[in-house]
Amino acid sequence: MPFWQTSNGNGNAASSSTTTTSSSSTSSSSMNSNNSNGNNGCQQNQSNQLGETRSSLYYSTNAISFVTKSLLPTRRRLRLDPPNRLFFPYEPGKQVRSAIGIKNTCKSHVAFKFQTTAPKSCYMRPPGAILAPGESLTATVFKFVEPPENNDRQLDQKSRVKFKIMSLKVKGEMEYVPEMFDEQKDQVAVEQILRVIFLDPDCPTPALEKLKRQLAEAEAELEARKKPPEDAGPRVVNEGLVIDEWKERRERYLARQQVEVDSV
Hints:
Blueprint: H1 3-71, E1 78-81, E2 85-89, E3 95-104, E4 109-116, E5 122-125, E6 128-131, E7 136-144, E8 162-170, H2 179-183, E9 189-199, H3 206-226, E10 236-237, E11 241-242, H4 245-263
Parallel strand pairs: 2-9
Antiparallel strand pairs: 1-3, 3-7, 4-6, 4-8, 5-7, 8-9, 10-11
């Protein structure tokens, strides 16, 4: 066989071998690329799934926390006695009174405020106040009882009038002003909505006896608040000698002035 044919054959063989090797390399690179893309896709999917799982857990945790808070009872700042009712003697055509004990159970000062759905026929004394930690008072509630239409005594009649007690934490001792509840609406809590219950004044019951006792306590507290604070008076030392500091200082000053004049 001529050499050129042999040479061409070898060249073709080499070319074929090179082409085969190149094809194998290309195929291998393509497979590696596909594997790499597949791995990246899997990692991306896993990352997305992990992010979705975390997001779901976050929202689930928040939802559980919200539901838990909504189911748990609100922590009260005040203790009321009676806790959710106002008892009034049923005397149609007259203004009657009820009473309720209010105690601050917090470690900070708390302001409270009364509200009613019938401000023209009802009012409270005091309408609001600030209580120190552990402090309590007895408030009096006044209400006009409308006479029934048929002039019959109906103790079981439903009263649409309701009372609401709100509370607000305040910083230390300060003067009570109703406007503080408007200025800090976000911090105001509704302690209780009180229903009106009528009692027969001619029929002694434990509830009626307790009401009379609370009304007497409220009157005593009111009289105590009206009294001016006791004056400690001037200081007394030794055998009851009253010392007037201003007078004593003036006498010393005059004596010193006299010494200076005599020395001139």
